[in-house]
Amino acid sequence: MRPTWFMADASFDWLYPERIQQMSRRHWTPMRIAKKAAGFLAEEGKKVLDIGSGVGKFTLIGAHYYPRSFFYGVEQRSELHHYALAAQEYTKTENAAFINLNFTQVNLAAYDHFYFYNAFFENLATRDTIDHHIEYSDSLYQYYSRYLYRELDRKPAGTRLVTYHSLHDEIPPAYRLVETSADFFLKMWVKR
Ligand SMILES: C[S@@+](CC[C@H](N)C(=O)[O-])C[C@H]1O[C@@H](n2cnc3c(N)ncnc32)[C@H](O)[C@@H]1O
Predict the structure, then answer these.
(1) Ligand 1 pocket: which of 60, 122, 138, 165 to mutate (most atoms <8 Å of CB)?
(2) How deeply is 10 buried, as exposed, middle or buried, from its count of CB atoms within 10 A (0-12, 13-18, 19+)?
(3) Strand, helix or coil at 159?
(4) For the chain, which residues score pLDDT lower than 70?
(5) How far is it, in rounded angstroms, from Cα 11 to Cα 100?
(6) Does the CB atom of residue 58 touch ligand 1 within 6 A?
(7) From start to end of the chain, where are the E strands?
(8) Whole-prediction pTM value?
(9) What is the pLDDT of residues 93-110, one digit of tens each?
(10) What angle do CA 108, 85, 58 make, to 5 degrees?
(11) 89 partner at 20 to 30 Å CA-CA among 11, 53, 78, 186?
(12) Residue 185 · residue 37 · CB < 8 Å
């Protein structure tokens, strides 16, 4: 029987416990967005990193549809990282890997292209947060955004970046916008 996980959001979300499924609309990338973003980022043999990968939805969908690229996810919450690993095992996705760290502890120079579904926004949000286990603050939002900005600025020309619901604080001017969705939430960038 062909696996049906990757056909629609509802079937994919069944990989997770109910509490995680209920967060899907607010916190995890919709299937059609993930497919489009991954299509832009995937290049044969290249490494794509999802910064703040949650339960691995973007990473696993990208890896499934683009088996000649490698998809990685870095996630600070160990509970979500655990669910990402479980979903990877369940779907037998081989060209993906998950790292349980704060993204500031990862060597971003080791990756070619990046996906970013405004992971830092939780520091500004006042409701619907994932949990209350970590500290949220405006200054953490500023710190993370500036950190990522500096790292993206160091990347070579040709680096691709996809942002979803970004406030643009982490995007250096050297990144040229090449495509956007009609609602402007999804944006695709290439470094000059
Ligand atoms: C909006 S969710 C997106 C999840 C995933 N990228 C997706 O699209 O399905 C953002 C995730 O980023 C994680 N995150 C936020 N700040 C982070 C940081 N400094 N380092 C690593 N992960 C972080 C959060 O824990 C959350 O799981």
Answers:
(1) 122
(2) exposed
(3) coil
(4) 1-3
(5) 25
(6) yes
(7) 47-51, 70-75, 96-100, 113-117, 160-164, 175-180, 186-191
(8) 0.97
(9) 999 999 999 999 999 999
(10) 60
(11) 186
(12) no
Q: What is the pLDDT of residues 71-88, one digit of tens each?
A: 999 999 999 999 999 999
Residue type, 97: A
Instruction: Provide the domain limits for residue 26.
Output: 5-191
Ligand 1 atom nearest 52 alpha carbon: 12
**9 C-beta closer than 6 A to ligand 1:** no
For residue 52 and ligand 1, the question of a CB distance below 6 A is answered with: yes
CATH number (domain holding residue 169): 3.40.50.150
Structure tokens at 119: 């992971």
Number of domains in the chain: 1
Q: In this structure, which amino acid lies at residue 54?
A: G
Please state the atom number of ligand 1 nearest to the C-alpha of residue 28: 9
Which of 31, 53, 132, 165 for mutating ligand 1's site (highest number of atoms within 8 Å of CB)?
53
Ligand 1 binding pocket includes 95 (Cβ within 6 Å): no
The Cα 55–Cα 108 span in angstroms is 20
